[in-house]
Amino acid sequence: MRVYPVHCLQDNYAYVLLDEKTNEAAVVDPVNPDNVMEVVNKMGCRLTSIITTHHHMDHSGGNAEMVKKRSGLLVHGADARIPEINYVVKDDEEFKVGSLTVRALHTPCHTKGSVCYYAYDSADPSAPGALFSGDTLFLGGCGRFFEGTAEQMLEAMDKLSPLPDHTEVWCGHEYTRANLAFALSVDPDNAVLRSTYDRVSQLACTVPGTIGVEKAVNPFMRTREPALVKVTGGDSPQAVMATLRGWKDKFRPN
């Protein structure tokens, strides 16, 4: 399995997911079809599907043009607002991209129909899987609660946390430096967080991260940690989540 990030718009990522065994591929959130198809054509792979994390146009806005470019594509998603959707995924449902298995994990909050997708090679359990997390989980952060609640985002983080620590996280935007700057403002004594911030500050492209690192540095995955309970004054993980998101919405890095 290989994943190719494709820069789109100002700070979006689309992805090409390739099964090297069969040369079959899927594209994730191909908002800029020309950029995505340039990668697909260079690879010479057989494109069979679109995987859509949510309906926002900076993620799903390229679907209609992609379907025109390649007829017969399956368009996966879980929201009727997704253009060209023709395969509605259920929570925990699995489907195939070549020999790869992709599991749909419903994570409503950023939108009611947000889905994260976990791709893995069932024939090689030791190989890291890939999580396409859209605008639910960012490196160092999470998405805004546009159509959901702090409780739902907590449920989403709790659903993603059990994935293997070496799972690669391929998120929807390049927000990592700003996210980690906020994380340091609320968790300043976290040595792993500090070293991660120093490392990614030197990178133009910060993806992928890993679930293991996110559990160590991402405040929205650490709402039960004493340091974050103390700084927020929250009396529950949901309250910590709500406070952190409210602060992040107003945060402006130096």
From TrEMBL:
List the SUPFAM superfamilies hit by this protein, alphabetically.
Metallo-hydrolase/oxidoreductase
The record, for InterPro entries, names:
Clx_II_MBL, HAGH_C, Hydroxyacylglutathione_Hdrlase, Metallo-B-lactamas, RibonucZ/Hydroxyglut_hydro
Q: Where is the Metallo-beta-lactamase domain?
A: 11-173
What keyword terms does UniProt attach to this protein?
A: Hydrolase, Metal-binding, Zinc
| Top EC class of this enzyme | hydrolase
Q: Name one GO molecular function term.
A: hydroxyacylglutathione hydrolase activity
The protein's matches in CDD domains, at most eight in alphabetical order, are given as: hydroxyacylglutathione_hydrolase_MBL-fold (cd07723)
Cofactor(s) demanded = Zn(2+)
Which Pfam family name is an example for this entry? Lactamase_B
Example GO biological process: methylglyoxal catabolic process to D-lactate via S-lactoyl-glutathione
Enzyme Commission numbers on file: 3.1.2.6
Q: In which pathway does it act?
A: Secondary metabolite metabolism; methylglyoxal degradation; (R)-lactate from methylglyoxal: step 2/2
What family is this protein classified in?
Belongs to the metallo-beta-lactamase superfamily. Glyoxalase II family.
> Which protein is depicted?
hydroxyacylglutathione hydrolase
